[in-house]
Amino acid sequence: MTTRVLLAGATGLIGRSVDAGLIRRSDIALTALKRSGSSGSGQPIDFEYLCAEPETALKQVAPEGVDVAISCLGTTIRAAGSQAAMYRVDHDYVLALAQGARALGARQFILVSSVGAGGSGFYLRTKGTIERDITALDFARVDLMRPGMLLGKRTETRLLESLGQRALAALAPLMIGRLSHYQAIPAETVARAIVQLTGEEGYGCQTYDNSQITRIACS
């Protein structure tokens, strides 16, 4: 049986590897989305139109329906230019994707969130809010990935993130117990875990920290 998968954020650090991994699965029919006007492969979509008409917008790119939707969308305040612009991507675009996918029959939603989601600070509050709003949409199964800082080479330069990666890599031996959740983790590892979880049966909402993500990726 073929599982119809919709992937948003396929050109990002995690999304690129998820895209490559799902393409290799013979049981997956993948539709990868990219922002209209952007470079790279994928089905172009106007995310503003998606926010206005979630079901209609997704039906144009997935006319046969959706079984699993995956969001690897994400930005930073610095990259987006403001808190409002970041929220538009990390919350509004993701929620519209979920609403449209649910309307087209999706039973599973996989979200790349962040360690500390729901905590203090605008970024973590936004992650907590989108987690809450996704789980309220009545998917049969929701998988929330909460990795620490991601390791890998982005297409765009994020100087502060690059410095943070080096610092966390140096501190890794000291980060044990609960602190291990905040260790840096390769984006490729997160992607492999997502590929493994895609199409899994079961019900309810599951969250995954670094250690759980690594275990799934290596299974």
Question: What key phrases describe this protein's structure?
Answer:
219 residues, alpha/beta, seven-stranded parallel β-sheet, two-stranded parallel sheet, 44% helix, globular
Structure description:
The chain is of the alpha/beta class and 219 residues long. The chain is built from 9 helices and 9 strands. It has a 7-stranded parallel β-sheet, sandwiched between helices. Helix 7 (159-171) links the parallel strand 7 and strand 8 (185-186). The mean pLDDT is 90.
What is the typical, i.e. mean, pLDDT? Answer: 90
How many helices does DSSP assign?
9
* Multimerization status: single chain
Structural class of the helices, strands and pairings? alpha/beta
